[in-house]
Specification:
Number of helices: 7
Strand order of the largest sheet: 4-3-2-1-5-6-7
Low-confidence stretches: 197-204
Strand content: 15-25%
Largest sheet: 7 strands, parallel
Structural class: alpha/beta
Number of strands: 7
Helix content: 40-55%
């Protein structure tokens, strides 16, 4: 079995208005650590970002934070050495996103703002264009990503996403299913890549 070793988590540097966002982030971090899956994320220690990374570390997992230099003072307050935490500081956002992609086997999106939205849509787009075969999952905590999935369905209905350009992403509102769903899809995509199977992408 091909196993996921690392998951890139896109999420907000704010906590949002509902405690369920932070609670879900902490539970996600715990389950990732217990599954032996490392976290790759944007490097901040605030908001949902801070919650998921701290939880991974508290439960014995490994974390790789990747942050551009100009965001250090905004998203990172703690600069002390932390065991199992690897910090990479980049020159710009382009390098940050490239390294996050290269160090990850799958992509998970928790609630966040416009930056979080931009990052996950980019990964879905890259998959649509055949640039990668890595699973992408929206954690629909409290219905947070419902408007996005509705918009994507609207694009399909209006003919802007066709059978030839269909997109493939996972959705769950159950934190306990995140790692298993990503693992199952990772195995499927890995098999397709090995077989050279270029099947049409579709929402699962």
């Amino acid at each position: 079995m091909t196993e996921i070793k690392s998951i890139c988590v896109y999420c907000g540097s704010q906590t949002g208005n509902s405690p369920v966002f932070t609670e879900a982030a902490r539970e996600t971090g715990k389950l990732m650590a217990m599954s032996g899956v490392s976290l790759v994320y944007g490097g901040g220690d605030q908001g949902v970002m801070g919650a998921v990374s701290q939880s991974v570390l508290e439960h014995g997992g490994k974390v790789k934070g990747i942050i551009p230099n100009f965001l250090l003072s905004h998203e990172r307050r703690n600069f002390t050495h932390i065991e199992n935490f690897d910090m990479i500081v980049t020159e710009n956002m382009h390098e940050r996103k490239r390294l996050m992609f290269e160090h990850s086997d799958a992509f998970l999106t928790l609630p966040g703002g416009i930056g979080t939205l931009e990052e996950v849509v980019e990964m879905i787009t890259w998959a649509q264009l055949g640039r990668h075969k890595k699973p992408v999952l929206l954690a629909d905590i409290g219905g947070f990503w419902g408007p996005l999935t509705e918009l994507l369905d609207h694009m399909i209905a209006q003919g802007f996403i066709t059978d030839e350009t269909m997109i493939r992403y996972l959705v769950t509102n159950d934190v306990s299913k995140i790692v298993p769903k990503l693992q199952a899809e990772f195995e499927t995509l890995s098999k397709e890549a090995l077989e050279g199977d270029d099947v049409a992408l579709a929402r699962l």
